[in-house]
Amino acid sequence: MEILDQGGSAADAAVAACLASCVAETVMTGLLGGGHAIYFDAASERAATLDCFIAMPGLGRERREVALLELDVPFGSELVHYAVGIGSCGVPGVPAGLDALWGEHGRLPWAQLVEPALRLARGAIPMLPAHASCLAMLAPVMTMNEGAEIYSPGGSLLAEGDLLRQPGLVRALETLADEGPRSAYEGTIGKALLALMEERGGLVTEEDLESYEATWLEPVNVEFRGYDIVTRDGLNDFPGALSSLGPLHGLEEPQRALALIETLREEPERQNGTTNVSITDDDGNACVLTTSLGLGSGDFLSGFDLHLNSMLGEADLLTAPLEPGERMASMMAPSLALDEHGVALATGAAGGTRLRSALLQVVAGILDEGLDAQSAVDRARLHPAGAVVHIEPGFAAETIAALESAGFEVREWTGRHHYFGGVSAVTRTGAAGDPRRSGAARLV
Which DSSP state fits 51? Predict the structure, then answer.
């Protein structure tokens, strides 16, 4: 909000908000992760996607395998298998992505974009409900190695309302402000990352870091209810889901639920731990930026409190053998809805396997059913996983009966939960953050 007030563009604000999330939401994201963005430039009326996701490491070095730590994480009522450790860290892309957004579409000095996050890091961050519950779920990873002092000071895991202190992030952000975003590749932060790789036997090399660049790409276009949806075609095939979803407007809730499930069935499991920011500015520019660490490897840069990503431990993201330097696949789908007046909706989601279902329900709610942004985000969600349909409280008994009659086992959760994803959305009349992830929205 400060950056927009100071005359910054949507890109400036997205960079600043992302850096702030790397302080305030470190259970879910971080500077050494990867991401995807979409940007609409109002002057040229063009949209482009930005790939700053994790690259396969190993350039300039003979290929080798590193043993990973296998563990099962309780996610809702299910145990999900993950692999972490130094060998799970791929080449980070977030700093390069922020550099590309700022360099192509920014207006304000780089150091000015870092200042809000730096101010947050110099203080303490209250643990919001969603962050505390996520930390409890991921405690075996978050408290490995250097993380124990950060997330379990004195031996007690931080709980809701406790203060999260990360003094190393002050040094990290001061370094980033002074050296620029390439510090993570060719400067002080990059050198610290390489030193940790050498110490613990990781895979990221100097050549990996020096050669990494974020890449601008053409978006995928899908017509939906009279709008031109521009997005990216990731592992979750969000464009395909939009294309196949029948009209929902005017349907009773049971029919609406069945129509959504028919579209969303057979969605594969993917990574957890993601943050999304959606922004529009007064000039009509829009930016949606999604970033993630995966779970995080359990390794932190000493003195910087920067958690390494664990994307190489996300086996389902490695859909085909990759050579060093090639990008990993991702489910992320930052999206814009355009009409003759410009951007009607800027939105994106977090949530791994639930990302597509969360985003589809919100986009359809706004563009098809006419809901305002916050009502669409707040509304109870469903997610099919094989023969099981997970639902949040709020669905009518008739809807549950219809799902069961259709042959599904219905698993009703006791409350709204971050399992069902986290969506942020901006429209011409309002904005919404997702309460499931302790999200928020602000209007200038």
Answer: E
Query: Over the stretch 266-307, which tens digit does the pLDDT of each residue have?
Result: 654 444 568 889 999 999 999 999 999 998 999 999 999 999
Number of domains in the chain: 1
User: What count of Cα atoms within 13 Å lies in the side-chain half-sphere of residue 130?
Assistant: 25
> Do residues 296 and 142 touch, judged by C-beta distance below 8 A?
yes
At which residue do the structure tokens 């939960």 appear?
A: 417
CA distance 196 to 215: 27
* Domain ranges, residue 268: 2-437
CA dihedral sign, ordered 241, 243, 244, 246: positive
Residue 8 lies in a domain: yes
β partners of residue 41: 46
The string of pLDDT tens digits covering residues 316-368 is 677 778 999 999 988 899 999 999 999 999 999 987 778 899 999 999 999 99
Where do we find the tokens 């464009």?
A: 239
Q: Let me know if residue 96 belongs to a domain.
A: yes
Question: Is 444 among the domain residues?
Answer: no
Position 76 confidence tier, pLDDT thresholds 50, 70, 90: low
Query: What CATH number should be reported for the domain holding residue 98?
Result: 3.60.20.40
Concatenated DSSP letters for 84-126? ESGGG--B--HHHHHHHHHHHH--S-HHHHHHHHHHHHHS-EE
Radius of gyration of the chain (CA): 21
Residue at 443 is within a domain: no
Q: Beta partners for 125?
A: 164
Strand partners, 327: 55
Per DSSP, helices labelled H in 339-396 are 355-367, 373-378
For residue range 185-197, list pLDDT tens digits in order. Answer: 999 999 999 999 9
Tokens of 384: 């099919």
Cross-strand partners of 329: none
